[in-house]
Amino acid sequence: MGAFITHFLNPILQYVFPCVPWEIFIFIPWVLVFLVARAAKDPSVTRGTIAQVNMFLTGFGAIWGGIAHTVGFLQAWDSLGGGGGICVPLPPPEYPNDKYAPATPFVLHDNIKSAGEPWCISLALHILIVVCVGYVYVFWLFKARYELLAMLKAGCKKVDDSDQGIVSEDTFYFRSALLWCSLGLGQALPYWAEFGNHFGQLLGGTGAYSRRFFTPGAVEFLQAMCTIFCGLYSAVKWKMLENGGSKVEAFS
């Protein structure tokens, strides 16, 4: 059954990777941090409140980190077991002739084996890390379902009844740190695995994930680093606010 599902999912992933807009993830984490910082200074804002941004962050972590990456979960285990796994839609940049030759998008490589291949192992670890963290956000989103429904019902305007809750600035920064550190670390792992091998060629050539000519590897690696730095920044902010975070009305 597992082999059948893996065979079924790989054709989906071969179209997903080239279509993901990797470039926008350079900015999204920092935009959310900016909105929270603005709302903390001016609690009267009605768009981009701490509660709204925190809900968006939680939903993004649940959907992108948990649900979406689950599509590659079985492929990850297959790669760790020596099979082709996640490297069927996303082979190493030196495959198949041990020379730097990134695969073209929308192509599967069914004959590849990942045993001992750092690229494939690191890709598998990336998926496992992100899925585990992502389902923490699924849990948080489930816990906040009533607040989410109230927010949607109110059209992101003020809620005046008992559905109103309290959301802290430090709660946002804790979730921001956990999400962006795990996503950035996971995405950077395959690039780091190529240190001493084809790392320099990866940065100057076609992106290892997207395989798009207009998204060089340097952009994908920069995105991973920006994501990690935002996670580390959020962790510092969380520690600073842990004992005195600014409390605001959840739907103000």
Structure description:
This protein has helices at residues 2-19, 28-41, 50-70, 73-80, 118-143, 145-153, 169-193, 199-204, 217-241, and strands spanning 166-168, 247-249. It is mainly alpha-helical. Helices cover 60% and strands 2% of the residues.
How many extended strands? 2
Roughly what percent helix?
A: 55-70%
Could you report the average pLDDT, rounded to the nearest whole number? 81
Class of secondary structure makeup: mainly alpha
Rg over alpha carbons: 20 Å
Largest sheet: 2 strands, antiparallel
* Shape assignment: elongated
First CA to last CA: what distance?
A: 49 Å
Percentage of β-strand residues: under 5%
Tally of alpha and pi helices: 9
Can you summarize this structure?
With 252 residues, this protein is mostly helical. It has 9 helices and 2 strands, in the order ααααααβαααβ. Helices cover 60% and strands 2% of the residues.
Q: What layout of secondary structure does this protein have?
A:
Elements: H1 2-19, H2 28-41, H3 50-70, H4 73-80, H5 118-143, H6 145-153, E1 166-168, H7 169-193, H8 199-204, H9 217-241, E2 247-249
Antiparallel strand pairs: 1-2
Helix pairs in contact: 2-3, 2-7, 3-5, 3-7, 4-5, 5-7, 7-9
Which structural traits does this protein have?
252 residues; mainly alpha; 9 helices; elongated; disordered C terminus
